[in-house]
């Protein structure tokens, strides 16, 4: 390789030629006084101080540009919306403070049911998803019917829209009049959500299991572990760790889809908002419900981001 | 653990007879015959793709042979009724890419098989693992996770993991090929020590120095055929076949560059 400093590059601080010189100096210093290194007496060079000063100035400039452009953007959007001909009407029907405070207690009470549905459905979905994913990895011929059933289940419930599953379970299951089938609407909602989301989560788990390199399984089997032991002790722990971010993403989606249960009637947030809106022809209660859902999903979304970033960092380390 | 079988006064651990293996119509092994005695160290040499790794994987039943038989301690392990898990319990294997379990500590990696496969209690398994780590200079790494170890340390842990179940036979598949040249030495050190303790081993290796040093028998594989086998001094100084000579000449040339 030829020396990179040609006539074109001026010898500004930090240029390759300079770095070269610095390296030579460092070697020279090392040869002259080997003791200096081991004593750790590092004094920041003028060049490094200048570099850091420039870096700070650049960072300051980027953040001020970001602030200014954000302010300009927000002002632009707000002025376009408020200047629109229909704005007074929209403001009245969606942003009515009196309606907001009036509907808030009822919608919040309904929202507690959403949280309850979510908290019960979530562990059930994890169990169903994991079991279905594991069944699909069984290879023994005895398990063929189970395996076929698992494939059928994921195909069907991923294909049918969640709202349809809720209708079918909510109205169809009680209609069978079988002893022991729950008739409570929220419970039926939980069953429907579990069926629908279980299929998605099963695929997430399966992708995680497939992503573990076959050499890990080979190593486990070479130690005499059975297929089941290799899955339980070696493959699954790695797979689960990998799928945590996509699973949380599914749960953010589940949190808001609890509102779909409204279609079969239990008094959750959306239903309460509907009742208020029907009374007054004012849609502000929907805004209340929307804000409540956002208040729940945003922390979850940030947590997902955090976990994803952390696993990214770990893989890079 | 089953006892040794005597054949003509020798204690034969592994006998491979006329083994064939195909991948997608390509013959990777073509009628391999090989016998390994107790305490014997056999080195498989040959170019990449000559079938060394495949042969080891067939012995460990990670791959199933397409023809021929393999006996371990006189018992036919290629019998379709044989339990592969039971066979693997008696054979240790070390891989080129270490294949440590990243979700477990060093101690967890080593004690997994003794505890879950051989039913050894946790306390005893850990004690034995610590003894092994001590012996191979890794005592301070017991609680570390594999990604915090150097390649050489990882491979040493992988060897200890394979040893922890007291295998009858140890298979080493190019265990230094993924290592920084500066780290190869520490792994070779362990293998030499194992040889001194009388461990029966089959190694697939590109380290001709190691093969010359520790092998009782060197086998040259070429295109899935075991072309020539003999004691290292014969194979390395007066190979009978031109193919063997050619291979060794090329390896030595590459070394010089």
TrEMBL record, chain B:
Keyword vocabulary terms for this entry: Amino-acid transport, ATP-binding, Cell membrane, Membrane, Nucleotide-binding, Transport
Checking InterPro entries in the record gives: AAA+_ATPase, ABC_ATPase_HisP-typ, ABC_transporter-like_ATP-bd, ABC_transporter-like_CS, MetN_ABC_transporter-like, P-loop_NTPase
Q: What is its main location?
A: membrane
| SMART domains found in the cross-reference section | AAA
Top-rank taxon: Bacteria
Output the Gene Ontology cellular-component terms: plasma membrane
Please verify whether the record's keywords include Disulfide bond. no
Q: Which Pfam families does the record associate with it?
A: ABC_tran
Molecular function GO labels: ABC-type amino acid transporter activity; ATP binding; ATP hydrolysis activity
Q: Which family does it belong to?
A: Belongs to the ABC transporter superfamily.
Instruction: Tell me what this protein is called.
Output: Amino acid ABC transporter ATP-binding protein
Q: Which organism is it from?
A: Sphaerisporangium album
């Amino acid at each position: 390789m030829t020396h990179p400093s040609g006539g074109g590059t001026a010898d500004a601080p930090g240029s390759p030629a300079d770095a070269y010189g610095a390296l030579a100096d460092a070697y020279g210093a090392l040869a002259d006084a080997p003791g200096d290194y081991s004593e750790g007496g590092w004094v920041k060079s003028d060049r490094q101080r200048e570099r850091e000063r420039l870096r700070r100035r650049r960072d300051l400039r980027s953040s001020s540009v970001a602030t200014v452009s954000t302010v300009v953007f927000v002002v632009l959007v707000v002025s376009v919306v408020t200047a629109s001909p229909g704005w007074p009407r929209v403001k009245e029907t969606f942003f009515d403070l009196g309606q907001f405070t009036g509907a808030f207690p009822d919608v919040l009470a309904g929202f507690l049911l959403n949280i309850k549905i979510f908290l019960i459905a979530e562990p059930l979905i994890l169990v169903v998803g994991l079991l279905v994913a594991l069944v699909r990895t069984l290879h023994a011929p005895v398990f063929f019917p189970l395996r076929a059933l698992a494939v059928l289940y994921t195909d069907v419930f991923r294909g049918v829209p969640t709202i349809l599953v809720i209708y079918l379970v909510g109205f169809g299951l009680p209609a069978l009049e079988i002893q022991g089938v729950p008739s409570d609407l929220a419970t039926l909602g939980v069953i429907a959500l579990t069926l629908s989301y279980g299929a998605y989560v099963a695929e997430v788990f399966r992708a995680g299991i497939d992503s573990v390199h076959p050499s890990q399984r080979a190593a486990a089997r070479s130690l005499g572990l059975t297929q089941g032991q290799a899955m339980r002790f070696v493959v699954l722990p790695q797979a689960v760790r990998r799928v945590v971010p996509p699973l949380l993403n599914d749960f953010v989606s589940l949190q808001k889809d609890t509102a779909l249960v409204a279609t079969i009637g239990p008094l959750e947030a959306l239903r309460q908002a509907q009742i208020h809106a029907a009374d007054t022809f004012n849609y502000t209660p929907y805004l209340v419900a929307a804000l409540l859902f956002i208040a729940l999903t945003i922390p979850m979304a940030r947590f997902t981001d955090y976990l994803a970033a952390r696993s990214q960092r770990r893989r890079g380390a | 653990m089953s006892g040794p079988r005597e054949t003509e006064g020798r204690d034969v651990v592994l006998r491979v007879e006329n083994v064939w293996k195909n991948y997608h119509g390509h013959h990777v092994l073509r009628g391999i015959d090989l016998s390994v005695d107790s305490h014997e160290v056999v080195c498989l040499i040959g170019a990449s793709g000559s079938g060394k790794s495949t042969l080891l994987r067939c012995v460990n039943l990670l791959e199933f042979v397409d023809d021929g038989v393999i006996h371990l301690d006189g018992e036919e392990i290629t019998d379709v009724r044989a339990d592969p898990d039971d066979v693997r319990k008696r054979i240790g294997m070390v891989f080129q890419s270490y294949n440590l379990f990243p979700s477990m500590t060093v101690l967890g990696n080593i004690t997994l098989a003794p505890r879950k496969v051989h039913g050894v209690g946790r306390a005893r398994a850990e004690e034995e693992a610590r003894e092994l780590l001590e012996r191979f200079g890794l005592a301070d790494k017991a609680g570390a996770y594999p990604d915090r170890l150097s390649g050489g340390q990882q491979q040493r842990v992988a060897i200890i993991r394979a040893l922890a179940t007291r295998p009858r036979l140890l298979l080493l598949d190019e265990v230094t090929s993924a290592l920084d040249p500066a780290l190869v030495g520490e792994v070779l050190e362990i293998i030499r020590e194992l040889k001194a303790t009388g461990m029966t081993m089959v190694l697939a290796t590109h380290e001709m120095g190691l093969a010359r040093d520790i092998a009782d028998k060197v086998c040259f594989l070429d295109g899935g055929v075991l072309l020539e086998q003999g004691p290292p001094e014969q194979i390395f100084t007066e190979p009978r076949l031109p193919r063997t000579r050619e291979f060794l000449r090329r390896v030595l040339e590459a070394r010089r560059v």
